[in-house]
Write a structure and sequence with these properties.
The protein is α/β, with parallel strands linked by helices and 254 residues long. The protein contains 9 helices and 9 strands. Strand 4 and strand 5 form a beta hairpin. Bound molecules: nicotinamide-adenine-dinucleotide.
Length: 254
Amino acid sequence: MDEKIRKIVDLILSSKYTVALTGAGISTESGIPNFRTPGKGLWEKLPPAAFSTWAFKTNPKTLYEHGLVMFGDLLAAKPNPAHRMLAILEEKELLKVVITQNIDGLHHKAGSKKVFEIHGHLRTGTCMKCGKKYKMEEIMEKLKEGELPPRCDDCKKVIKPDIVLFGDSLPPEEYGKSLDAAKKCDLMLVLGSSLVVAPASGLPAAALREGAKMVIMNKMATGYDREAEVVIHKPLGKTAEAVLKELESRPQNI
Ligand code: NAD
């Protein structure tokens, strides 16, 4: 493990353009379950169908009913050492951008400034007819008052959280910038992603095609492990703390 941590730090220090790609696994230690871990995944509690755009259009109540607890948990969650490590790397100018599949906003809460949220976020929602924006606090307030589904004050149409549902396309600008960063990077750090959810799973492929090196930190094996310079199948919090400790032991980087 120590040797792997030293190698990760060497790669970060010698890279000119490092990008991080994060998935649900970076937030499990903040108390948010991921989708696919057997026995613990969200899919074992919530029906995936509730998170499709088709279901939302036909019966928007379902997403809010199932999502109510989850949204509250996500909004209350706090960043953990892995989110903080990425914010510190950015502050030290050792990381250009975080590309995240998560909607929990924990990278921002940890202090990361440049974050591409390719599956959207829970900070706001949008009226599906007139496009009026609502803060999530306003949406939660409507829900608490029994407004199910929450509706626009002006046109009374349904408000959709600004997250990507199954069947939605990714926000084109956010994904375009992510693909550019993946192609441009010389080092991609993957943290807590099974790398099976398309099209985000195409980002490591794009990086590798352009000659980037890759580090994978994920509890379970991924389809990209064989391509990576370093692979760590351990809980991220401990790995992140070890990386920061190693980085601080290099005098020029404190
Ligand atoms: P996934 O569920 O497919 O995979 C998560 C991976 O993280 C798994 O391979 C698991 O082994 C690993 N993991 C779990 N806990 C870990 C830990 N403590 N340390 C290291 N690795 C750990 O997640 P995904 O690939 O991100 O795809 C699921 C989709 O669901 C994403 O697109 C995301 O948008 C969404 N999602 C988001 C959240 C969130 O915002 N926090 C939560 C659940 C799902």
